[in-house]
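note to self — DONT lose this again. spent like an hour looking for the file last time. sequence + predicted structure for the chain T wanted, 475 res
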Amino acid sequence: MHSALHKKIRYGFYVAFTIIIAASFFSYLVAKNLVDNANMFSHTIEVSRRLEVIIKELKSAEAAVRGYNLTGDSTFLQPSMLERNRIIEDEYRLLRRITSDDPAQQRHLDTLKELLDIKYYQLLQSQTHRTTNTGAKAAVREGEINMDRLDKKVLDMRRIEENILKHRSQNFRFFSNLWIPVLLIVSLLAIFIGIYSYVVLNKEFHLQLHIEARMKSYQRELQDNILLLNKSNLELEQFAYVASHDLQEPLRKISTFSDRLQMKYKQHLPEEAAQLLERMVSAVARMRVLINDLLHFSRAGRISPESIAPVDLNTVLSEVMTDLDVSLQEKGAKVNTVALPVIEGNHTALLQLFQNLVSNSVKFSHPGRPLEINITSEVITGRDTGFAKENKWNDNFVRITIADNGIGFEQEYAERIFLIFQRLHGMSEYQGTGIGLAICKKIVDTHHGNISAIGSPGKGATMIVVLPFKQKWDE
């Protein structure tokens, strides 16, 4: 997508977004006003209904008492005055609750309560006057006066509710007349911008579909190439393993025949022939070592999630020192170590890693001074490793340093020494095939770590191994 098109779409979305926000705000105001009016209407109806129930119950009670006073039939008093009063009390409490935020209505309810108590007392007195037959007419007149006062108080409360509802309705009409045209204009503008954005994005969408189709095609090709590469690697590993085993048999025969020649005919051979035979035997021995190292390299790093377990590196280092005890004594070596942590890994692979690193220090010791090896460790975060991905920056890693005072090497060869068959010295100077450090790198890589080296000619070498505490195979 071109830069100009990017800007148009970006500005269009900014304007549309601003308009939508404004329209949403205005809509909220109108909707809130509408809801408030609906709630107030419902509130007014509820208050009126409660007041109507109270007046209805009072009039019903008054009619029942009059019927009883006229006929003497006690059925007029069913339900009883106490039950009627309980209904009125319930309605009154509901009115108290639903008008709790209106001080004027609360004051009217205080007066209404007084009138209701007086009316209740009058009704009880009227009921009693039937039995005593005294003051009945006066009680009826007094009841009518009190009922008129009750009607007037209820009417006042209804007027308050109606006035509030009328005020709210006026506000709602104002909002409707003002904001509805505004909302219409804003909506039309938003629709126009939306249509324009849709047209532009539709073109981009089809372009993106084309790109995705090409990407999927490339991904399929890449996946096929990966499968072929994995298959090729597997075949190469199998070939190396089988070839190494197949090579062992002719080497054993050459070694056997060479030994027989030396034992039976060495004294009869010319001096030059004997030397050639010795060189052949030496070459066979080197070939056997090379094949064994190739086997070790092909097997190194072959670990699976099932073979991962907590490994105490102190135990691993102790086993390495035991295996290399004779070589260390021959060099008069001094090994200084610190406490190492427990990490997740493959015990056999980590044992081979440290054995190769320590034996490398022994092999390349300086002839003019006793060998000294210092092994240290520190805990760091993924951010400090320099190679961990961002999603592992908060994970813990251990950085193990194995430093010696051997012959060292030029720093320019720091990466080359980890490649297979790469040697910095001739066979006549130091024995080996140049596979040991390549095996170390393969083991560290399969443990999601990193290995590097720092060298100084004549002063020594330092191997730095960084390994995670936890192995996350799902990544």
